[in-house]
Specification:
With about 170 residues, the chain is α+β, with helices and mostly antiparallel strands. Among the domains are: about 45-105, LysM domain (Membrane-bound Lytic Murein Transglycosylase D, Chain A, Roll); about 120-165, Membrane-bound Lytic Murein Transglycosylase D, Chain A (Roll), CATH 3.10.350.10. Helices cover about 30% and strands about 15% of the residues. The strands form two sheets. A two-stranded antiparallel ribbon has the order 1-2. A two-stranded antiparallel ribbon has the order 3-4.
Length: about 170
């Protein structure tokens, strides 16, 4: 279940959880012990998805689509539509439109430059290019192409700022 590395599964339809046979009873017992409000069911309101996320207002830029915005902030298009019902009824987005998003905390507080449509990540102790790329769902090659300083030196160090485009 590599798609479960995040905090939530997709809102787009049912999800089949794969559990090894020898762990079934253990997983079932833990699932049964969960509080009912901790389990997302399709008939629950989107407000319950907002927990553990931060509210931001995003201003639409030229070339943006619901898909590109959802991908940039790690949310689904269906969630974007639920959070922005007026926008969901429109055929097109227009530059300057404002969208409310409830984003995972790793995306909140980032400055997204209109030029690069990305943000700067500050390298922490223990980070590697691979771990950073995996965290933001990009490739190491992309990181290197967005950060010319990585072409001169293959080493990163704590405090170094890396551009990550979305």
């Amino acid at each position: 279940n590599p798609e479960l590395l995040g905090k939530y599964t997709s809102l787009d339809g049912p999800y089949a959880l794969r559990i090894p046979k020898d762990r079934y009873e253990e997983v079932k017992a833990k699932f049964d012990s969960l509080a009912p409000e901790a389990i997302y069911l399709s008939d629950k309101k989107i407000d319950e998805i907002k927990r553990g996320r931060r509210r931001i207002v995003y201003r639409v830029r030229r070339g943006d689509s619901l898909y590109s915005i959802a991908r940039k902030f790690g949310v689904t298009v269906s969630a974007l539509k639920k959070w922005n019902p007026k926008t969901a009824r429109k055929k097109y987005l227009h530059p300057g439109d404002r969208l409310v998003l409830y984003v995972p905390s790793k995306y909140a507080g980032r400055s997204y430059s209109s030029r690069s449509r990305g943000f700067y990540y500050t390298v922490k102790k223990g980070d590697s290019l691979y771990s950073i790329a995996r965290k933001y769902r990009v490739t190491v090659s992309q990181l290197k192409s967005w950060n010319p300083k990585l072409k001169k030196s293959r080493y990163i160090y704590p405090g170094m700022k890396l551009l990550i485009k979305r």
